[in-house]
From TrEMBL:
PANTHER family: 2-OXOGLUTARATE (2OG) AND FE(II)-DEPENDENT OXYGENASE SUPERFAMILY PROTEIN-RELATED. This is gibberellin 2beta-dioxygenase. Keywords: Dioxygenase, Iron, Metal-binding, Oxidoreductase. It comes from Salix viminalis (Common osier). The keyword Phosphoprotein does not apply. It is an enzyme of class 1 (oxidoreductase).
Length: 332
């Protein structure tokens, strides 16, 4: 942990740093139009819980339009942005992540994807809420369509009879999905003082089923490999990066890995990312799919609802192993 003495830097003295790591060129790249996509997706989810998606069919204009509007929001004077906060957990947040003391070099807007909840929160765009709201909705329409396809390829690849076993949870009107715009401002002075890279968003796994990230061309995203090393993901503003979330790990009885990841801030360039987190309805009971449980293995997890898991996540710290509470111990 960095402890800085300069008074101006005091509020940031708890933000952690870490040593830079090299760019990793072996991230699996899946072409959504490839006839072998489903097999490659399964392999990537088992090995990394993470892959890059190309030829995804989402028009670039949807991304650039939203990125432009997000930039204008984050460029507003601080008191204006603060009118959209503090997050409850939805709304504008600055440096504080979640309710339990996590901090990072990041400001963000967290939105629910349900149109009614979304519209309550987008009234914060005093200048033109309608333009922002429709840019978010258009973007989400494209990203959701693509995510359903990816989830259906996963079910196919796992030879599950009903192709929609995962996608139906996101297609449901009650789906508890959310959308996050993260802005990591550059921080040259702080970076020079600390000698390392500032943590923008600390290490964690995503609680939901699947996360779909698009960022500008600034580096920062790192994933944790099974062998125990952090690697830096080369950015690509034309592609999406897909993360397996905790719920998908449970539904596949541990066959897929919920990937641990974090984001470092860049000293000179601002990083902007937009992430769709696909979650099930709150009342959905989560358990491994029967066909994915080896005969004598049984479920590795206790059954729980998404509401229970989400509530428990909000009592945790970012880096906690949240699934730990729901794992079965010997004899259970
Ligand atoms: C991580 C993934 C998503 O960004 C998020 C985050 C949420 C928040 O920022 O409100 C959490 C975090 C995330 C997991 C543990 C809890 C909840 C902050 C935090 C410390 C929106 C989510 O669903 O879980």
């Amino acid at each position: 942990m960095v402890v800085l003495s300069q008074p101006a830097l005091q509020p940031f003295s708890v933000i952690k740093t870490c040593k830079p790591v090299g760019l990793f060129s072996e991230i699996p790249v899946i072409d959504l139009t490839d006839p072998h996509a489903k097999t490659l997706i399964i392999k990537a989810c088992e090995e990394f819980g993470f892959f890059k998606l190309v030829n995804h069919g989402v028009p670039m204009e949807l991304m650039t339009k939203l990125e432009g509007l997000a930039n204008s929001f984050f460029n507003l004077p601080q008191p204006e942005k603060d009118k959209a906060g503090p997050p409850d957990p939805y709304g504008y947040g600055n440096k504080k992540i979640g309710p339990n003391g996590d901090v990072g070099w990041v400001e963000y807007l967290l939105l629910h994807t349900n149109p009614q909840i979304l519209s309550q929160k987008t009234s914060i765009f005093q200048e033109n809420p309608q333009i922002f709201r429709s840019a978010v909705e258009d973007y989400l329409l494209g990203v959701k369509r693509m995510t359903f396809e990816v989830l259906e390829l996963m079910a196919d690849g796992l030879e599950i009879e009903s192709r929609n076993v995962f996608s139906r949870l996101l297609r449901d009107d009650e789906s508890d999905s959310c959308f996050r715009l993260n802005h990591y401002p550059p921080c040259p002075e702080l970076q020079a003082l600390t000698g390392g890279n500032l943590i923008g968003f600390g290490e964690h796994t995503d609680p939901q089923i699947i996360s779909v990230l698009r960022s500008n061309n600034t580096t920062g995203l790192q994933i944790y490999l099974k062998e125990g090393t952090w690697v830096s993901v080369p950015p690509d503003q034309t592609s999406f990066f897909i993360n397996v979330g905790d719920i998908l790990q449970v539904m596949t009885n541990g066959r897929f890995t919920s990937v641990k990841h974090r984001v470092l801030a860049d000293p000179l360039k601002s990083r902007m990312s937009m992430i769709f987190f696909g979650g099930p309805p709150l009342s959905e009971k989560i358990a491994p799919l029967p066909s994915l449980m080896a005969e004598r293995e049984g479920s590795l997890y206790k059954e729980f609802t998404w509401f229970e898991y989400k509530s428990s996540a909000y009592t945790s710290r970012l880096a906690d192993h949240r699934l730990g509470l729901f794992e079965k111990t010997a004899g259970q």
